[in-house]
Specification:
With 296 residues, the chain is an all-alpha fold. The chain has helices at 13-16, 25-30, 36-46, 50-59, 68-86, 96-100, 116-119, 127-171, 181-197, 205-229, 237-254, 266-288. It has twelve helices and no strands. Helix 5 packs across helix 8 and helix 9 packs across helix 11 (237-254). It starts with 12 loop residues before the first helix and ends in an 8-residue tail after the last helix. The relative contact order is 0.13.
């Protein structure tokens, strides 16, 4: 997930870290700033080499602060509570009736209201749905945001949200969409691909891989179970998969190196143009070819 600077020396371990590999307090003081204790712990959990740890501690600042995931979770919970009170029977376990009339839901029959391709991420079908997404966002998103900052996390997350709704409009055209799973799977996809790319540079690399694999297998397996066993057509596996592929393609570059300049990276522009091309194909499909009815 993090690439070290190849020009840095690797012969100063004794001066920079304790025998167990943790960053020494003297080096933390050199990088003193916002969230110093938290980012030191983050460096020890994610980075394998002392050079990367020191470089991260010195380069990280709270400009911008790691706010995106926390604000997103708060908004999702507030909207869930709002619809929980709005529904007639105060059903906290399922609120399908209230959500179907929401201006935020992705409605395949109202695709001309283009904000729905994004706003559906704020809605959740039931208590289990919102808790699951919030926990996944906090588990993976906070760590990514602390390392790569909010801008990159926002780009990857939103690429998954948009890819999820556009892909669903093509391959699952009659399904209504709620939930942030497209964005969550984009974060998971970007995180997973970079575990492999930076395997030797990550601390506890096997543990990272195991945790992400368990999360994906459990959540995806549960979604398949709900879709097939209970015939819940509202569970769009297409949105999950499209979000993951968006995360792999965009997150591959965005999460590859925490201190790289994306604007000067040709692979970044290649991945962005490829993503935009696929989005254009999906837009064309919705305008002229959709079996639900064309927008134009």
């Amino acid at each position: 997930m993090l690439a070290r600077n190849p020009n840095r020396s690797t012969d100063s371990r004794d001066n920079r870290t304790d025998p167990d590999g943790r960053v020494r307090r003297s080096n933390v003081e050199e990088a003193e700033g916002c969230l110093s204790s938290f980012k030191t712990t983050m460096a020890d959990l994610v980075l394998a080499t002392e050079e990367d740890k020191i470089e991260y501690l010195k380069s990280y600042n709270c400009n911008p602060p790691p706010f995106f995931i926390l604000v997103l979770c708060l908004v999702e919970l507030i909207i869930f509570i709002y619809y929980g009170f709005k529904t007639e029977r105060k059903q906290w376990l399922t609120m399908d009736t209230a959500l179907l009339n929401s201006p935020l839901i992705y409605d395949p029959y109202q695709r001309e209201e283009v904000w729905r391709f994004v706003s559906y991420m704020f809605l959740h079908a039931d208590l289990e749905h919102v808790i699951g997404n919030v926990l996944l966002q906090l588990t993976v998103g906070i760590m990514l945001e602390m390392v790569h900052k909010s801008f990159r996390v926002i780009i990857v997350f939103m690429s998954g949200v948009i890819a999820g709704s556009l892909a669903s409009s093509i391959f699952d055209p009659y399904v209504y969409l709620v939930g942030a799973s497209g964005g969550v799977y984009a974060l998971l996809g970007g995180y997973l691909i970079n575990i492999f790319l930076n395997w030797s540079r990550m601390a506890f690399n096997g543990l990272h891989l195991l945790i992400i694999s368990i999360i994906v297998a459990t959540d995806l397996g549960f979604s398949i179970w709900r879709r097939l066993v209970f015939d819940e057509s509202a569970v769009s596996l297409t949105a999950h998969i499209a979000g993951a592929f968006a995360g792999i393609s965009i997150g591959y570059v965005a999460f590859r190196n925490f201190n790289s300049n994306l604007l000067k990276d040709p692979s970044w522009w290649a991945s962005v143009f490829a993503y935009l091309f696929m989005c254009c194909v999906a837009v064309f499909w919705n305008l002229f070819l959709s079996p639900v009815g064309t927008v134009l």
